[in-house]
Amino acid sequence: MLSHSSSRFLSLNHHPRHPNPAIYSCSFSLPFRISHSTLKFGAIDFKMSSTNSTVSCNGNSNVDIQTMDLGFDHLDLDRYVDVGNKLADAAGEVIRKYFRKSFDILDKEDLSPVTIADQAAEESMVKILEENFPSHAIFGEESGWRCKENFADYVWVLDPIDGTKSFITGKPLFGTLIALLHKGRPILGIIDQPVLRERWIGISGRRTTLNGQEISTRSCPQLSKAYLYTTSPHLFSGDAEVAFARVRNKVKVPLYGCDCYAYALLASGYVDLVIESGLKPYDFLSLIPVIEGSGGVITDWRGHQLHWEASSNSDVASFNVVAAGDKRVYQDALDNLQWY
Amino acid sequence: MLSHSSSRFHSLNHHPRHPNPAIYSCSLSLPFRISHSTLKFGAIDFKMSSTNSTVSCNGNSNSNVDIQTMDLGFNHLDLDRFVDVGNKLADAAGEVIRKYFRKSFDILDKEDLSPVTIADQAAEESMVKILEENFPSHAIFGEESGWRCKENFTDYVWVLDPIDGTKSFITGKPLFGTLIALLHKGRPILGIIDQPVLRERWIGISGRRTTLNGQEISTRSCPQLSKAYLYTTSPHLFSGDAEVAFARVKVPLYGCDCYAYALLASGYVDLVIESGLKPYDFLSLIPVIEGSGGVITDWRGHQLHWEASSNSDVASFNVVAAGDKRVYQDALDNLQWY
Fold first, then answer.
1. Which pTM value belongs to this model?
2. Which of A100, A172, A257 is opposite residue B255, by nearest beta carbon?
3. SS3 category, B38
4. In this structure, what DSSP letter does residue B226 have?
5. What interface predicted TM-score (ipTM) does this complex get?
6. Which of B102, B198, B235 sits opposite A172 (nearest CB)?
7. What is the pLDDT of residues A55-110, one digit of tens each?
8. CB crowding A93-105: b at 16 or more within 10 Å, else e
């Protein structure tokens, strides 16, 4: 029923409880995969039920654990992962068709190859979701909000090509981003690089994998030892530029040009810090389970949980994001960003 | 004997003649592969010989023009052999590098605070070994190990950078490159950019069309800066006046190291502008870019030249590369580097 993961599993942040239970987020580290609706943690059973009882999480094996309601069971989660993989497969097929192709082979004169690839990849994903989960809502970067019902507990948030300039210039580091939100909380996140055939999958309560192998962030005690990535210095304006410079001046090596791939490298333990400004929800929601599931932390520049409610009239606000593999360098970064 | 390349082949820059014939550089655009020591260009024969006669190059396909004997100083069987060994070097370095990529290893900081790894050193050693076996009379200039030469003088120098983009390598980003150049009397006649994780290899050869994994490639047209995609590695690699000059050009994309030049040769990028490049980082780019129809010079529009020898200073250069002469000129006009 249960299997142990490797001893390199790092513990995750516990997020503070949010007053609104619909977006309560408790990420905890379980040293085993969830494959059944009753979990054993040490000698204690966690019972999963669909009643709305108070959630309480405790890793101590002698403490009495109350019933925990995640609102879905793990057979459901496996099914979501399965469909998530199909989405990434479908988007990847489309994207590989257009990558490094010249403009003159396309007959839509006013649209660039990247736009065609973006739209076609998103459509291929929407089609699969409409077939498999017709009651779920979808928020696509290209096509916006789509929902049969008025409300939905489940929202898929899609960005078919994050890093369009990389795609346009033939640089194989852009990513397809797929997130599934349950009551506003990301429970599944996928970063897929279809040319290199690398897929990072982050799932609530499970360890993040890269092409099926479990991964982990690495330790990093402070900024002066950190390798930092950001996409471009030109994406910071005004105060954000000044704040970023405070961190950038202290890190060991600042590097540029990776889009979402940098967060994937961080989850894999090759990068210590990623700091960006002006990210859209469809560009960070999928990163959250990936990074948290590998032992890292990802929040806004004030240290608050990144949260965005997808709905038919959502504004697509911009967010400042900081991600780190180690809580110490994360705290050092926040202290230097001084974003109050 | 000869085969025509595709009609997309662009003509190359003709570099001004240098007073010292040892480093005379004439890049020719020939719309066919050289596979024999007598070439037909239109209806004219170029005879290759080893006598030291004046070099004269004429690209005019008018069959009535008289062409003098041209001395490139080596023949094309030699060149094929150099390419063959060049491929072996890239294969060997690639084997080493793939062993260390995304594995944990010690990172040593050099005096200039740039990181170097065991992968750098081992990859370079593997290449040096192959060269010592195949061309014992050639000199070698390696980024890690410096100058190595059995003779007092040599016409041939192999210039090696096992990992250009060490920081990308260290952070698991698969866009660094192995750079291999062969100089003949100071002129790069062979250039290789190899990405061993993606298994992509660009090969540029004097007088031939550049290939990517065996397929011929070409830069793309770009009339002006406003339409150009520009790459540079990092904003921190420009200092003082160079920073000011670069800012006059346009907002760039970042983070590619040598891979940006490879993308330019393939026609996906229009401009690459960098400051402070070392010879082992640009010499291999020259045949790759010129052989695909592009242009690569310093910021004053002068040919990039570096004489490798036992007491070479490893000077730094400002480099601009473009796929189209028009956007190249536009960039120079904005850099205003006089």
1. 0.78
2. A257
3. strand
4. G
5. 0.77
6. B198
7. 333 333 333 333 345 667 778 999 999 999 999 999 999 999 999 986 544 444 55
8. ebbeebbbeeeee
